[in-house]
Design brief:
Layout: H1 2-10, E1 15-19, E2 28-33, E3 36-41, E4 44-49, H2 50-54, E5 56-59, H3 62-67, H4 71-97, H5 105-121, H6 124-136, H7 149-177, H8 185-206, H9 218-231, H10 236-264, H11 273-286, H12 297-308, H13 313-340
Antiparallel strand pairs: 1-2, 1-5, 2-3, 3-4
Helix pairs in contact: 1-12, 4-5, 4-7, 4-10, 4-13, 5-6, 5-13, 6-7, 7-8, 7-9, 7-10, 7-11, 10-13, 11-12, 12-13
Length: about 350
């Protein structure tokens, strides 16, 4: 609620204008018409002619920002977003291969965007991940048996970890390239994320964590054993390295898309690095299971960090909404694909069936 309230307070729907000779806190909402402008004052609406309107200094609102969007650029970025989801399916398929789950790439992509549809309604990225797990556990492995829940969960979590690792790494690299990152807490947090994930994987592969008292008893031990076998598989380093290479393309595509949306809305940031840092932070906080589809948390991150890049709140929110529109376009495709699934006559229902899920 705090995040949504922050966005509603920070982002005007109409343009906000004020006289150059008056302080900016005197700004009022303005609607533009062919004959001039309508000032929405507390005492009532006042209409002024076009010449007087031209003298006002204005901060664009969400409506006028979206009106001037360059549709050709946005369409091209949507195609790049689709290519990013295909690359995401490639990355996940590489990690599923470690669990001996061999699905065609097209089927993995289909599950990915079906889960994206569920992620619109469920909290953060966690909801879509749960749906991916539910779907894969209903599929047999290469050996014919069902895929163990713990291993499927490990594959999905590793997929998410590799993705966030590369997002944070590329954000720090781009931030350093465009003005330097300094040494503040935000930089340390972005740097610590990939370092912590890599260190955690190395510990799971090399250290005898299964001997710890809390992890060596009963159901915990039984659930942990296949996970450890999964990450300690001799094929794991190669699969994770390939997944990381694919993830580097995915991360680069996401940053190009977000920066391209800023350009497509006709805006120019004054501090370029905060566009990339803000994008990374929006992805990270959007994965927190707070609101369905990450509503509010991701939007607030874009408005806050893009503001540090010198972009108006309306531009920041417009970028977020357009990026969310890309997600929803693929989610609609995923929902239609899921609805089109038909069980052959006489086939028994699966024990677990559901869709799966940036």
């Amino acid at each position: 609620m705090c995040a949504l309230a922050f966005v509603a307070w920070a982002v005007p729907v109409r343009d906000r204008c004020w006289d150059e000779s008056a302080p900016s806190h005197t700004q009022v909402s303005v609607s533009r018409e062919a004959a001039g402008c309508v000032l929405h004052l507390k005492s009532g609406d006042v209409t002024i002619d076009a010449s007087e309107c031209a003298k006002l200094r204005c901060e664009p609102g969400l409506a006028s920002t979206m009106k001037h969007a360059k549709l050709g650029i946005i369409a091209a970025l949507l195609l790049l977003y689709v290519a990013g989801t295909a690359a995401w399916a490639v990355r996940w398929r590489l990690l599923l291969g470690l669990a001996d789950i061999d699905l065609p790439l097209l089927e993995v992509w289909r599950i990915t965007i079906e889960a994206q549809a569920g992620g619109v309604l469920l909290p953060g990225g966690v909801g879509g991940d749960a749906l991916r797990i539910a779907w894969i556990t209903s599929r047999p492995t290469r050996h014919g048996g069902p895929a163990p829940l713990s291993i499927v969960a490990a594959a999905v979590l590793l997929d998410r970890a590799v993705g966030l690792t590369l997002i944070a790494t590329v954000a720090v690299a781009l931030g350093a390239m465009f003005g330097g990152m300094g040494g503040g807490p935000l930089v340390w947090a972005l740097t610590a994320l990939p370092v912590g994930i890599v260190a955690g994987l190395m510990i799971l592969r090399a250290a005898p964590v299964e001997r710890l008292p809390l992890l060596s008893r009963g159901s915990v031990s039984r659930a942990l054993a296949p996970v450890l076998a999964y990450v300690r598989d001799p094929r794991a380093p190669r699969a994770i390295a390939l997944a990381g290479a694919v993830s580097a393309f995915i991360a680069a595509a996401q940053f190009v898309i977000l920066r391209g949306l800023v350009f497509g809305l006709g805006a120019t940031p004054s501090a370029e690095k905060w566009v990339y840092v803000g994008t990374a932070m929006a992805f990270i906080v959007g994965a927190v299971p707070a609101l369905p589809g990450g509503w509010g948390t991701a939007d607030a991150a874009y408005v806050f960090f893009f503001g540090r890049a010198g972009l108006a709140p309306a531009i920041s929110l417009a970028v977020c909404l357009l990026y969310r529109l890309f997600w929803y376009v693929l989610a609609v495709v995923g929902a239609l694909l899921y609805a089109s699934r038909r069980r052959p006559a006489g086939e028994a229902p699966r024990a677990v069936e559901g869709p799966g899920e940036p």
